[in-house]
Design goal:
With 386 residues, this protein is of the alpha+beta class. It has 3 domains: 238 residues, Deoxyribonuclease I, Chain A, CATH 3.60.10; 47 residues, no CATH class; 54 residues. Helix content is 32%, strand content 17%. The protein has 9 helices and 12 strands. It has a 6-stranded mixed sheet. The chain has a 6-stranded mixed sheet with strand order 5-6-7-8-10-9. Helix 4 packs parallel to helix 9. It is globular. The termini are far apart. The model has no long low-confidence stretch (mean pLDDT 79).
Length: 386
């Protein structure tokens, strides 16, 4: 089902529980393709998967690169492709799922051991290149094909050719643009997907003409995958395309540090007070500059702060914490409130539609875990506990 194109080079070993993924639109240029892959050598993180749109060379087929195996639809001129390091394939089997079209590619990673220190043995990526030949009325890749509610970690990454206030909130959109993008974002919410692009982070900078920069290379993750997203950045150098190369890092949730706080009411003051009384401050330097004064303050304040934190326990969930709350809801909540504020401020129909979509998705994600939590409580409840 796949047309491999690989070479003897193996590249670096895969990172444990870390999956860097790069997405890029190559403009069907071999020079752009080569520049991108050569830039990996200077990058701080070597990619585990590279997802491309328009990767064709002069013969109409995706080119090859040393150390990578390519996957693409078995058609005459594929419009999407994926490149996987040989070293990654030696540890994680990758299967191509062909849908019979040239503009969408699905890969499934199915290792023998659970992924990301979770109970799941499968991770799926969908790489679409959607075009709109009828002036935004019909897209070549339908939303139903992308945003399906599946019990696997699912990431949708690609060039969708749609414009929406959720991805670019400061831009003024025409009714045609919002009408074209609305089905995609509505279907994403219904399928439990979250838009992962930072709002207003442009991914397309036109080289010619009067078109404005915009956000048309989009990332969506379902609720299972959302817990694994560590970083989204545009850090790779420009390689000749009018699109930026985007990197998203997926990391085991057990390795993502959670924010900590001190419970100062439980500080061990009985042991701390004698130490603080004997704490010696160095004398302030006379007629010092601001930089010298900052260094002097840090010299005695930092050790004192570290001393206090050592004898203060880390905070625990408060009495008002929701046992059914999740990191997914923590991400959705500010997005919902931001969309509501923007809709109230400007009041355009497009922004109100975006706010409604965000509201439906947010409260749907609240109701599902809340119902499960109360159902589990009722199963073990007794007359005494109630």
């Amino acid at each position: 089902m796949n047309h491999p194109s690989s070479s003897s080079g193996k590249g670096p070993a895969p990172y444990p529980n870390l999956l860097p993924i790069v997405q890029y639109h190559c403009l069907a240029g071999s020079d752009v393709f080569l520049s991108l892959f050569k830039s990996f050598k200077e990058s701080t993180t070597y990619p585990s998967l590279v997802l491309l749109q328009e990767p064709r060379d002069s013969k109409g087929h995706p080119p090859s690169f040393n150390g990578f195996k390519s996957f693409f639809p078995p058609v005459r001129k594929p419009r999407v492709a994926a490149y996987v390091p040989i070293s990654f394939l030696s540890a994680y089997p990758v299967l191509l799922k062909f849908n019979g079209v040239d503009d969408i590619l699905a890969l499934e990673v199915s290792p023998q051991e659970p992924l990301f220190e979770t109970s799941f043995y499968s991770f799926r990526i969908i790489n679409p290149y959607s075009t709109n030949p009828r002036a935004h009325q019909v897209h070549s890749v339908a939303p139903d094909t992308l945003f399906r509610a599946l019990a696997v970690h699912l990431l949708v990454v690609g060039h969708l050719n749609i414009h929406n206030p959720l991805s670019d909130p400061m831009r003024v959109f025409s009714p045609r643009e919002t009408g074209s993008s609305y089905p995609h974002f509505e279907k994403a919410v219904q399928g439990g997907f979250t838009h992962l692009n930072p709002p207003g982070e442009y991914t397309w900078f036109p080289l010619v003409g009067k078109a404005r920069p915009s956000v048309i290379d989009l990332f969506f993750g379902n609720s299972l995958l959302l817990l694994l997203v560590k970083n989204w950045e545009v850090s790779l150098p420009s390689t000749g395309s009018d699109h930026t190369a985007i990197t998203i890092d997926l990391l085991s949730p057990n390795l993502i540090p959670s924010p900590k706080g001190q419970r100062w009411s439980d500080t061990d003051w009985e042991r701390l007070l004698p130490i603080i009384k004997n704490f010696q401050n160095p004398p302030a330097p006379p007629c010092s500059s601001p930089a010298d004064l900052d260094a002097w303050l840090a010299g005695w304040l930092d050790p004192l702060t570290a001393l206090l934190k050592e004898r203060t326990p880390v905070s625990r969930p408060s009495d008002h914490s929701k046992p059914w709350w999740s990191p997914h809801l923590t991400i959705l909540r500010p997005k919902f409130y931001k969309a509501s504020r923007v809709a109230r401020k400007y009041g355009t129909p497009a922004l109100r539609d975006v706010a409604n979509i965000s509201k439906v998705g947010y409260f749907k994600e609240i109701n599902t875990p809340k119902k499960k939590h109360w159902s589990s409580l009722l199963l073990v409840a007794t007359p005494q506990s109630l």
